[in-house]
Amino acid sequence: MQLSREQMLQAYRRMKIIREFEERLHIEIATGAIAGFTHLYCGQEAVAVGVCEHLDTDDKIVSTHRGHGHCLAKGCDVDGMMKEIWGSREGLCKGKGGSMHIADVDVGMLGANGIVGAGAPIAVGAALAAKLDGKGKVSITFSGDGACNQGTTFEAMNMAVVTKAPCIFVFENNHYSEHTGFEYAVGTQLDIASRAEAFGMKVWRADGTDFFAVHETMRDLLVYVRAGHGPAAVEFDTERFFGHFEGDPQRYRGEGELDRIRETRDCLKKFRASVVSAKLLTDADIDAIDAEVLSQIDAAVDAARAAPRPTPEDVLADVYVAY
Amino acid sequence: MQLSREQMLQAYRRMKIIREFEERLHIEIATGAIAGFTHLYCGQEAVAVGVCEHLDTDDKIVSTHRGHGHCLAKGCDVDGMMKEIWGSREGLCKGKGGSMHIADVDVGMLGANGIVGAGAPIAVGAALAAKLDGKGKVSITFSGDGACNQGTTFEAMNMAVVTKAPCIFVFENNHYSEHTGFEYAVGTQLDIASRAEAFGMKVWRADGTDFFAVHETMRDLLVYVRAGHGPAAVEFDTERFFGHFEGDPQRYRGEGELDRIRETRDCLKKFRASVVSAKLLTDADIDAIDAEVLSQIDAAVDAARAAPRPTPEDVLADVYVAY
Amino acid sequence: MAKMMYRDAVRSTIFEAMERDDRVVVLGEDVVGGMGTAGGPEAIGGIWATSTGLYDRFGPDRVIDTPISESAIVGAAGGLALAGKKPIAELMFADFIGVSLDQIWNQIAKFRYMFGGKSTCPAIIRMAYGGGFNAAAQHSQSVHHFLTAMPGLKVVMPSTPEDVRGLLREALRGDDPVIFLEHKALYGVTGEVPDGDWTIPFGHARLTRAGQDLTLVATGLMVGRCEAAADALAKDGIGCDVLDLRTTSPLDEEAILDSVEVTGRLVVVDEAPQRCSLATDISALVAQKAFASLKAPIEMVCAPHSPVPFALELEQAYLPSAGKIEAAARKVLGYR
Amino acid sequence: MAKMMYRDAVRSTIFEAMERDDRVVVLGEDVVGGMGTAGGPEAIGGIWATSTGLYDRFGPDRVIDTPISESAIVGAAGGLALAGKKPIAELMFADFIGVSLDQIWNQIAKFRYMFGGKSTCPAIIRMAYGGGFNAAAQHSQSVHHFLTAMPGLKVVMPSTPEDVRGLLREALRGDDPVIFLEHKALYGVTGEVPDGDWTIPFGHARLTRAGQDLTLVATGLMVGRCEAAADALAKDGIGCDVLDLRTTSPLDEEAILDSVEVTGRLVVVDEAPQRCSLATDISALVAQKAFASLKAPIEMVCAPHSPVPFALELEQAYLPSAGKIEAAARKVLGYR
Ligand SMILES: Cc1ncc(C[n+]2csc(CCOP(=O)(O)OP(=O)(O)O)c2C)c(N)n1
Ligand SMILES: Cc1ncc(C[n+]2csc(CCOP(=O)(O)OP(=O)(O)O)c2C)c(N)n1
Ligand SMILES: [Mg+2]
Ligand SMILES: [Mg+2]
User: Fold this and answer.
1) Which CATH topology does C2-193 take?
2) Does the Cβ of A75 fall within 6 Å of ligand 1?
3) Distance in angstroms (rounded) separating the CA atoms of residues A320 and B18
4) How far apart are CA B265 and CA B269, in angstroms?
5) Are C304 and B98 in contact (CB < 8 Å)?
6) Best interface-test mutation with D: which of C106, C154, C276 has the largest number of D CBs within 10 A?
7) What is the position in ligand 2's atom list of the atom closest to the CA of B117?
8) D259-292 confidence digits (pLDDT tens)
9) Residue B283: is it exposed, middle or buried by C-beta count within 10 angstroms (0-12/13-18/19+)?
10) Which residue intervals of chain D bear CATH 3.40.50.970?
11) C230: buried, middle or exposed (CB in 10 Å: 19+, 13-18, 0-12)?
């Protein structure tokens, strides 16, 4: 099934927003404008967008410490996110959460998460809620190749199978957990998807740097899950362009690795090449989006810089609904 | 490789000790002589003994809430165990641990465990110690079909593979976790061993009610692990003859199920039938052991009844080595 | 007015809530029981019999039997709650917060705050706690101090069937995460439960004995032991206020301080060991805010600094008893 | 006498121990770093640089890089210790006790007791705790109160490079499980570390300032803030005892009580929220055992009852500061 022009433009715009958001954060963090630990999603955009383009606000996602891309793809407000990362009281979480805890339940984004592996059980719960509602909605948990070793991820997979929850386990294998390679930390000689299979799940695999591969894979997978067959898993092979967190000297990378992946595994470049060569979009179409997004991000940064800061009285707000 | 007469007699004696120990506890618990939660191993003897007959005291095992059989098979003192379950200060754990926490590190028995799934990581640690010592020793964790759903069990399997720890995951599938069936709680349509396989482990499977099948399987498996190939897993299909814990009305069982498994899946009966028909041992050999064991257990119960009780001052002993 | 057991107050209050509000969902190990067996669903429920009959009435989408995976149980409760449901998750034993703490502490308790107040997470986590069954070190613990220390959680410790009803209803009515601690030695206790649609607001202690000479503060099973001590003291003409806190978070500071302002003498009783316990929490509160009223050192009657031992005699010596409470009271009363 | 950073005191003390005793084993996430990558082992160590160089010297059997599986890490440490080794496990952040609590609390802490004193479990669990890095609610917590409340554990909170050296050596020398809490804001702090083979026994507080008017009690990062407050008060001629507890379990009750017997006034400072905290623990101790000496209510300076917030301004407001400590001190001093 071919995507419409509008769908393609929107997908590209979403990916580009993530890319520019992150490239800009990379610069701002280096200047010391932003506090805390920030993990950039740059390089993995095709996964977040290829997955989330299939969803509406009643479908839920649960994200990770590397969550900006998932948030943006799911529809979190760009300005609100930027302000949150800057720690403003106008941020999406009023400056309480920061980069690792951005959430917007109203758009079905149930939170980035600082605890590796913590998202999977939460997604199962959201999936059980969807099952109870009976409207074919799904819940998606994103996990890294590191998170797939955490007990909670395994428990969640089994529980989803047992309860036939419409939960989708999206594994983004970017080959590293912090400074450790996938080949070391994931014991199996097989892949992550094979583990999910051993829990009794139907699994898919695709190139996570190819938006169209991700998008098509998810289409098939979602037909299966929305039809009530229970959970499913998918493993996307992808790349992160920056360090584990900002400040990481990345000495674990191979020589020329970063150049190579920026050159050959850049999902935005690949998208452009494929749609232009297939004459689905023109370079001008894409350049126009690039320019718009750039100024959108500029504006977001300006707004975040100027946004009001929280005050000490805010500390005790929102611990409870009522206490 | 054929077992010697002495080996067969010893194996049978060990199984019979477990059986009589448990049958007797079943009676004593009903009369209220024993406090706490007690989970009887009766029916699964061929697993504990078929595994532990291959081990010496430098090989370690870690057990479960249903640990009496593993303890006895690994060489914990019968009287000491009986006294412990009675709560005497002469018990193997001075009355501090009780049925769910019997341990004897001196014989390589690192503890029964009241927390389902907790034993697996501990066994990995003991295996890492064995690896460091480099003497071909192994560490074994026993897990049920319920425990195999706990996150710790999965983490332990992966970590054992990653660290090439000589750790053996023995899954005793007795088809129930408390009142819930294996078919429900273990999501996969496959078996537990297949999960271990997906972690990159070599796995074995055997009939856990057939002592010789267990024993042979373990021989092969141990050759593999002791040779330094890393961890391995085995799934034994077995039966528990009593309820989950004492007091369980077992309404989840099928009609005639208990009679059927006592009739056709009794590892002691099967052992006797096979050795007698193969003329390896005589009925008289076995009857003699039965009689000896019976009086050994009688004596253990008498000793436990008469053993001194702990006193309030004992409460604060042994919290620390020094504080 | 109905007479019922504590465990039935749990079950019937859940039943009632599920009838009224189809967002209420129950999940946990063996909350149905018999799944995947010849006996079939509800062949036999959980070991506390606090969910019997729910599955038959409300079916598998609202009464969810889970594998042995406590992190996933609590996490799923969090996800259900974020997605608009009102989950009631059961941990068979409170000791199992050990295998699920992250989801309680770092997730459920913090969602609302981390998300800037834009979400609610009305998950109720029920768990059976406490000693008295010779269940030893991993199945007998009191965990309220850990949970009370966690901002974002409310912590409830009913001591009677009536309080179970009123407090569980209140938990279900609210939109915050609630830890509901049921003492396993109270499940079989019977008491009157008034009819009608009433609740007990959180943060309101119950005065179960009134007196002018000494304040006794406790929760759960320890309330009865304080009452026994108070009754013994009453025979000597000594009057005690016995305060059942009912909820430890929020805490009814006022009731405690008001009482101590009158009595000037305080004994705090806690089934957990003393270090960083609720007993120290309340002592510290009083030493700060009712200092001028205090006529004597504050005594604490707690478990010793050890795991819970197995043997009958040891566990008996381990748990605070009416006798120990009475002795502490007399010590405080004897201080000049 | 060498000058070194707190993080280097950790690393070099481990290095020294591994040289001396081949039972000492290190395990944790990225304690080697670079495993399975083109850069290879030690391409880059853990984020705290507290294990740099260990792998190159001691190899993969003694420096074990693990997957992200904290329960398995702590559990493996328990198994290593039961099997006769001296494991030092690292949790990258103390907040990760949430995903490993059972192995800490129900296993390692209890083995010896449950097994009737017939085993030892000398596992050391190191973890980086505390705020100040805008790392928000799941990477900034102080957890000493939880762990201090657990019988069977010893809990160490060094505030200087010297204390790191002496206390870690003592932990390695002992046969009990030890929680070693390293404040992440102290890793970069430099201090003198005496040469020679000395240790610091547990349960001995350090008096860092001496005075007659007021007692300040603290741990970790808060010690420095108490000292700053004491120095400010000293300018007004007010003398403070500042007690750095060093270990919270065992606790140096005597040092605290002795000081309060002289000063009669106490402020306890704690980076954690107040409920069931170490601050309440010490207040309660004093309200019980030094009651007669107290001249004023005991004040506590703690974090508020909320998760740790992200934004600079919020976290600053959240953490106890020298200013807040000074204000509390003046309040206590002003009480008549
Ligand atoms: C429970 C827990 N353990 C460890 C960490 C520290 N940590 C943060 S991200 C990370 C690596 C995660 O790797 P992966 O899942 O592959 O995600 P990626 O960073 O590649 O997106 C680690 C170890 C954490 N935040 N939570
Ligand atoms: C963490 C934890 N969850 C739940 C329990 C309660 N429990 C004790 S045994 C058991 C069932 C275990 O089933 P399985 O692993 O199959 O072992 P079996 O009882 O069949 O030997 C359960 C749920 C527990 N002790 N620990
Ligand atoms: Mg990764
Ligand atoms: Mg079983």
Assistant:
1) Rossmann fold (3.40.50)
2) no
3) 54
4) 8
5) no
6) C276
7) 1
8) 999 999 999 999 999 999 999 999 999 999 999 9
9) exposed
10) 2-193
11) buried
